[in-house]
């Protein structure tokens, strides 16, 4: 339970003293009601009735209800608040994680299961409080039993110690099985994503559908088997505890009176107390099983956070002002490699020696796999240069200046993500200006901007690219990078894009990096960079004037 202990003790905001105090009072009220019931039952056997016992029982009941409610609410609200902080903390760290790290681990496996883990953790508050209250009730009830029969109390203590010892041995194996089941669940969610995102390919290939289904069945069966084993172990532990205490009850009724002669009233009180103790013991048993699942879920979140911590980029630790202008960006021997699991290079981009002057329009061309996307990620600072430097106005871009350097670029990559909210727009850009662009790009009637949000984004790829183009242009950054933006567009829009929109941006002082395969428009560029096998093989100046 180390992860659960850390969660409850180190995460701020949990009112531990108040919860513990309320739980202690709940347990004491429980024990007091038991003693009062035993006393009242003994008087009833003698045809005696004491109204004070009735009143005292009602007071204990009110105390129990108040402290139970208070402890439960405090714990649940504290856990929910802590979960919110942890989720936001993880989300912030994902935002600050390097692109290379995200790509290398396949989109952070385990993050998809964050919601499921959070639902499990949300039960921690009530489970911990119930278990603590039951434990307090067990302690006080056992002390009360010691007054009635020291021998019965000793037997109870021995049974409890034996049960704890068994759980101590078996709980680690249950935790391991639950952890393995979690990993297989993540694999299943990844395969389920293939079903959703690859629906076109799957509908065209029966063999591919069958293969993916076999994989889904295999992963689901493995996850089910691991969960089943963990559940079997949990049921065994629960059954072991229940049988042990039922045997204890048998011993109290049939054996104890023989060993230690006692009156019938005392035997009744001992039996009633032992039966009363069975309730808290059952709650503790169930609570420990539930807390084991919570501990595993918290462990998954902390493991994910540790991976994120290892991939954080230091330049994000303090905010910086975005840059609004530059004179020259230069790659000086900049190189980046993709490595396999053994560390052998799969693809090398560079070394590149390249300069980009403010106000230029540069087309970047090359076949598939030529390294265009990698070069763009080097230029934008999304990929760090493993060798060489990226220079901004003659100064190397390092961890302290990387975020400011990145703020020069507005991008629409081929694998762009279209946010429905326009998060990055500067002050002064309102819905009317966005809607004017929507109308201009032929999207009126398709979507609108209301409250800084697109009303609809489930459009065709070409239409979504136009919305991404609008967002990039309105950000007002010095450099616009458009990766195959004209692809998936109709001929009329492609012509308008090259003859009207790009020249308009250039006239406004924007630097343009355009990835394109359409040679018909190369003459509109100042330069055309050709890539092959990760290297710039030519840098051709076109008819357009290059800024001095």
From TrEMBL:
ABC transmembrane type-1 domain span: 19-293
Gene Ontology molecular function terms on file: ABC-type transporter activity; ATP binding; ATP hydrolysis activity; ATPase-coupled lipid transmembrane transporter activity; peptide transmembrane transporter activity
Entry keyword set: ATP-binding, Cell membrane, Membrane, Nucleotide-binding, Transmembrane, Transmembrane helix
Subcellular location: Cell membrane
Protein name per its UniProtKB record: Cyclic peptide export ABC transporter
GO biological process, one term: peptide transport
Topological relation to the membrane, as annotated: Multi-pass membrane protein
Segments traversing the membrane: 20-38, 143-166, 235-260
PANTHER family: ATP-BINDING CASSETTE SUB-FAMILY B, ATP-BINDING CASSETTE SUB-FAMILY B MEMBER 6
Domain of life: Bacteria
Keyword presence, Transcription: no
GO cellular component terms given for this protein: plasma membrane
Keyword Hydrolase among record annotations: no
All residue ranges annotated as the ABC transporter domain in the record: 329-548
